[in-house]
Design brief:
With 288 residues, the chain is of the alpha+beta class. Helices cover 27% and strands 22% of the residues.
């Protein structure tokens, strides 16, 4: 694809994701698509796992998936998916990286390891079970590296990215229900769109935390909570607070930035059915 065409696609993608065009450019697919879902099987595995981790949060969380990772939505995330890795751009990258990794006795995402800390504002992580790589980067790189780096607990052990899975991690991974290939693609697609927005301001998922369009502030009065649970190709996603379910549906079905092949039906007055091939995901909004 001509470089000018890729640059044009990067500008379009940045309008939806919140990236800057230079950050979006490496993620553009060779076909000219935005590249949000064009990735290796290893990346699909990781992104589906991140969906399980982030969308089981608060008092609604499935008991076997209380990994305490949903709080990263409060760090104003910008998600930059690439073909063979993932970049998560946040405020306070140290906090987010170490929350994803946890500790040897309390891993938040089982099998996640720190491979390297690059300067003061980028962490390189590796998920051992899938082999997938991700980066956690500071949003304001112009100021994040000023001054001395603060002391981080147990950093030496965290940086040994080849440490094998612990027995506790193996138990937590074994507790995850089986997920069909199509459902993995759908869950991965939802997670990478967690902060997706329409440049024309018709929807904004707000990092699954806020409504940047300030439409209905009463939704923020209850504590945010969510639950993602199911088996193989049939899952349920329920939540209270943000985002609006209509925003999520609009993001998934958008002709430019949506997940290719997704269809939506109203299942009841309180739920929607999202389909991707044989996968069926029911959305339930606790605010309705």
């Amino acid at each position: 694809m001509p470089h000018t065409t890729a640059k044009a696609a990067a500008r379009i993608r940045a309008g939806f994701t919140g990236e800057v065009p230079a950050t979006a450019l490496p993620g553009i697919a060779r076909s000219g698509g935005l590249g949000l879902d064009h990735c290796t099987p290893e990346q699909t595995e990781l992104r589906a796992l991140l969906a399980l981790a982030c969308f089981n949060h608060g008092e609604l969380a499935a008991p076997r998936l209380r990994w305490r990772v949903g709080q990263i939505s409060a760090y104003d995330p910008v998600i930059s998916p690439r073909f063979d890795h993932l970049v998560l751009i946040v405020n306070a990258c140290d906090n987010v990286a170490l929350r994803l990794v946890g500790s040897q006795t309390d891993p938040h995402i089982p099998g996640m390891r720190v491979e390297e800390r690059l300067g003061y504002h980028v962490w390189r992580l590796r998920h051992l079970p899938s082999g997938a790589q991700m980066y956690v980067s500071e949003r304001d790189t112009l100021t994040a590296g000023r001054g001395r780096a603060r002391r981080l607990p147990n950093l030496r052990r965290r940086l040994d990215g080849k440490e094998p899975l612990t027995a506790d991690e193996r138990d937590k991974l074994a507790a995850i229900p089986e997920i069909s290939p199509s459902m993995k693609r759908l869950l991965a697609g939802i997670w990478v769109r967690m902060s997706l927005r329409d440049p024309d301001r018709s929807f904004d998922l707000g990092g699954w935390c806020i409504d940047p369009l300030d439409r209905a502030p009463e939704r923020a009065r209850c504590a945010p909570a969510s639950r993602l649970w199911g088996h193989q190709g049939r899952w349920d996603l329920e939540w209270r607070g943000y985002p609006f379910p209509t925003d999520l549906i609009a993001a998934l079905t958008h002709p430019t930035a949506g997940v290719e092949g997704v269809t939506v039906d109203r299942a009841s007055s309180h739920s929607w059915l999202i389909r991707l091939e044989e996968a069926e995901l029911y959305l339930h909004d606790e605010e309705l």
